[in-house]
Amino acid sequence: MKIQSSFILMITIMLTSNIVKASNLSESINKDYQEHLAPLWDHFHRNPELSLMEHKTAKHLAKELSSIGYKVTENVGGTGIVAMMKNGSGPMVMVRADMDGLPVKELSGLPNASKAMMTDWDGKEVNVMHACGHDVHMTALVGTARYMAKNKSKWSGTLMLIGQPAEEKGPGASAMMADKIWQRFGQPDYAFAFHVDADSVAGKVTVDESSPYAGSDSIDIIVHGVGAHGAYPHQGKDPIMIGAQIVTNLQTIISRELAPRDAGVITVGAFHSGTKHNIISDQAHLQLTVRSLNPRVRKQLLSAIERVAIGTARTAGIPEDKLPEVIVNDNAYPPTYNDKKLAQRLKVLVTEKMGSDALIAPNELGMGAEDFGFFTTDPYIPSVYFTVGGTPQADFDRAKAGGPQVGSHHSPQFKVSPEPSVKAGVETTVIALFDLMGK
Predict the structure, then answer these.
(1) Mind giving me the DSSP string for 231-290?
(2) Is 133 left (phi over 0), alpha (psi -120 to 50) or beta?
(3) Dihedral through CA 255, CA 261, CA 262, CA 266, nearest 10?
(4) Please, how many CA atoms are within 13 Å of residue 347, restricted to the half-sphere of its CB?
(5) What is the pLDDT, as a whole number, of residue 14?
(6) Are strands 325-328 and 215-224 parallel, antiparallel or unpaired?
(7) pLDDT in tens, 125-144
(8) Is the pLDDT reported for residue 270 higher than 50?
(9) Where are the beta strands (DSSP E) in 293-408?
(10) Angle at CA 259, nearest 5°, toward 258 and 261?
(11) Mean pLDDT of 109-113
(12) How many of the other CB atoms lie within 10 Å of CB of 272?
């Protein structure tokens, strides 16, 4: 009985200790948010920059990290930064935040709404805003860096922090990999990142055990025809008609070829052809986005798209030397895979350290893509990409009652609440790091 009582007392002390540590972590992050992170988020929000042009953003982020003891290397893969802190033996763990804004005019109504203007990649003057929450990601990265630097006695290993450019436009992560980031700085043993989510309640954490983001391919289909007068269609081969049939036939791949439990999307986002009312063109150009969650489905979709395009043209009588060209572009994103065991560990930790209601189930209904997979797929690095809710419950309640709808990602009305988002992002990341690196 004495032994049993001692065991119960020991467990009670351990649980109490964990609660105190979690409480101390929350209090420390809250204090840092009020004193440092809130104005930092404000700065990033007011001063967004487009993909591949994040020069001032990267400089500011690099200055923040170097000022607290990280060894920072700039201009990795363009405007990317890598910040390292070696703190004894142990695993190397990478944490990534993306830095770029979007060519969108902010209509959020916030007092610090972006008024930034930039010349875009085509030489056009455009408005720029953080319409996808990358300002939250960078601020949380700094918050994580600051906490880890202040608590070096409690962990051991190497922390690698990445400020990644051009997540929105595409070549950011792949450009950093092409710049031999692992060869130059070391290959991480584990990796983490998160995204703020306008569709979830602010401060709530979601950890998917499989693929939180899809792989993405961009495909061009050039449909060749035979031009003719619009009044004499029998003298030509109409690429608009053939292209329209291809658009329709492509959807049978999803409905009749893809297994019901497999996920895939084929969307024709653009269809260009012709110049005048009464001219049958000799060419049509289709632009597709294709989404999948694993390499097997991706291979199946790409093969079927080519077969359907060519088969439809053959059925219309197009000769072999004029069959459609199906071009799979190089800027493909791999799916983002979460390591199942690591994700399960993080889910338990979030519930234990942040409260039983801190974790919510994934509710991913779309097939959004993300280039984080370039870092973790080849070579494989165990990783978790989690999400943090960014919209207050009151906003959802007002929308449900007929009030203003919650602004979606990439929209001018995008408006997440920074305080709960940043604080939850920092706390979840620190908990994950201490699980792997804590003494």
Answers:
(1) T-GGGSB-HHHHHHHHHHHHHHIIIIIS-TTS-EEEEEEEEEE-SSTTEE-SEEEEEEEE
(2) left
(3) 30
(4) 15
(5) 45
(6) antiparallel
(7) 999 999 999 999 999 999 99
(8) yes
(9) 325-328, 383-391
(10) 125
(11) 94
(12) 12
**Single-letter residue type at 422:** V
Q: How many helices (H) and strands (E) does the chain have?
A: 12, 15
Beta bridge partners of 162: 82, 96
Tokens of 91: 């695993």
Q: Could you tell me the two tokens for 286?
A: 């289709």
Above pLDDT 90, what percent of the chain? 88
Where residue 11 falls among pLDDT bands split at 50, 70, 90? very low
Q: How many Cβ atoms are within 10 Å of 220's Cβ, its own excluded?
A: 15
Q: Tell me the chain's radius of gyration from C-alpha atoms.
A: 25
Identity of the amino acid at 354? M
pLDDT in tens, 405-427: 999 999 999 999 999 999 999 99
Order across the sheet with 325-328: list the strands.
264-273, 283-292, 215-224, 325-328
Predicted confidence band at 21 (pLDDT cuts at 50, 70, 90)? low
Residue 369 has which token pair?
């893509």
**Do residues 297 and 258 touch, judged by C-beta distance below 8 A?**
yes
Work out the mean pLDDT of the chain and round it to a whole number: 93
CB 390 within 8 A of CB 205: no
CB atoms within 10 A of CB 164: 31
Length of the chain: 439
Amino acid at 90: G
Report residue 36 CA to chain centroid gap.
26
Q: What whole-number distance in Å separates Cα of residue 133 and Cα of residue 144?
A: 17
Cα–Cα distance, 265 to 291 (Å, whole number): 5
Sign (positive or negative) of CA dihedral 37, 38, 43, 48: positive
Does pLDDT of 322 surpass 90? yes
Q: Which of 165, 93, 205, 190 is nearest to 371 (CA)?
A: 165
The β-bridge relationship of strands 279-280 and 157-164 is unpaired
> Please, are residues 389 and 197 in contact by the beta-carbon 8 Å criterion?
yes
Q: Is pLDDT at 49 greater than 60 in this prediction?
A: yes
Is the torsion defined by CA of 431, 364, 167, 300 positive or negative? Answer: positive
Residue 197 has pLDDT above 80, yes or no: yes
The burial class, CB within 10 Å (0-12 / 13-18 / 19+), for 334 is buried
Contact residues for 227 (Cβ-Cβ < 8 A; gap 6+): 236, 279, 280, 281, 282
